[in-house]
Write a structure and sequence with these properties.
Helices cover 80% and strands 0% of the residues. The chain has 148 residues and is an all-alpha fold. It has one domain. α2 runs antiparallel to α3. It is flat.
Length: 148
């Protein structure tokens, strides 16, 4: 949780610095985009740590903690799916940062293939480790809903 707060504060400070430098020094647009995406990346990584912290706290310490509906964790599969979603967002932000960075333009294909392979691997991992009991409960609940 402390690491999450630290990354979010650092990302927010980096965002403020980028806005300040962009206005005062008239930083080129591509440089501004790369700096903004770097700040967003830090904030998203802080979000990953926050989700892990709340999820583990909710799973092992207090199951009645009040969190937003999107952050409710009932089992490790819920935590895993939330983490995969946030990691996918981070991968996308990093790839866009490489895409707009003129210094690394020759690496775009390699980064794109790597990001795609990583996302495909995460999707396969999610499908392969899905809890079959939860899947059956979801299917039976949707079939009961269709009968009504």
């Amino acid at each position: 949780m402390i690491g999450a707060i630290l990354l979010m504060v650092q990302g927010s400070i980096a965002m403020i610095v980028v806005v300040y430098e962009s206005v005062l020094t008239q930083m080129p647009l591509k440089d501004s985009i790369v700096e903004v995406l770097t700040a967003i990346d830090a904030i998203l990584l802080g979000t990953v740590l926050l989700v892990i912290g709340y999820g583990l706290y909710e799973l092992f310490i207090d199951t009645n903690i009040e969190v937003p509906a999107w952050l409710e964790i009932n089992d490790l599969d819920d935590l895993k799916s939330k983490l995969i979603g946030v990691v996918a967002a981070i991968i996308a932000v990093v790839f866009v940062g490489v895409f707009v960075d003129t210094d690394r333009s020759e690496d775009i294909a390699a980064y794109g293939l790597g990001a795609g392979a990583l996302l495909a691997g995460l999707a396969l991992f999610s499908l392969a480790t899905k809890n079959p009991d939860k899947k059956n409960k979801t299917e039976s609940a949707s079939s009961k809903k269709d009968l009504k």
